[in-house]
């Protein structure tokens, strides 16, 4: 399993929906719509201290400080899996800590 890219997160979005911004009848239960979900897509700072995140509640896409505690949405073999734990972030090599 790996952390989804920002493109993978955005591929789940139905822009006509809010809170969560997921399609009607989606199979994802307990989506934490009030919080950002990390992506593995690094921000544009050098060194990369930010990574892109997405908020399924208000459709906000933003660069998030990698030391912040956010949710992750994992991908495996083309299937989505949700990990409902907080993590501490990633180090400057992109490794989750």
Detailed description of the structure:
It contains one helix and six strands, in the order βαβββββ. It is mainly beta and about 100 residues long. It has one domain. The chain is globular, with a radius of gyration of 13 Å. The two termini are about 15 Å apart. Residues about 80-90 and about 90-95 have low confidence and may be disordered.
Strand portion? 25-35%
| Mean pLDDT reading | 80
- Broad structural category: mainly beta
Domains, number: 1
Q: Could you write a compact summary of the structure shown?
A:
The chain is mainly beta and 97 residues long. It is 5% helix and 33% strand.
List the helices and strands and how they pair.
Elements: E1 2-3, H1 6-10, E2 36-42, E3 50-55, E4 60-65, E5 71-76, E6 79-83
Parallel strand pairs: 2-5
Antiparallel strand pairs: 1-5, 2-3, 3-4, 5-6
Task: Give a quick set of tags describing it.
97 residues; mainly beta; six-stranded mixed sheet; 1 helix; 6 strands; disordered C terminus
């Amino acid at each position: 399993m790996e952390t989804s890219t920002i493109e993978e997160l955005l591929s789940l979005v139905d822009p006509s929906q809010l809170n969560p911004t997921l399609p009607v009848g989606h199979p994802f239960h307990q989506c934490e719509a009030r919080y950002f979900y990390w992506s593995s897509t690094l921000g544009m700072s050098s060194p990369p201290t930010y990574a892109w995140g997405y908020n399924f509640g208000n459709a906000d896409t933003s660069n998030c400080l990698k030391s912040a505690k956010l949710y992750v949405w994992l991908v495996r073999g083309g299937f989505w899996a949700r990990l409902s734990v907080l993590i501490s972030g990633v180090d400057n090599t992109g490794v989750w800590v």
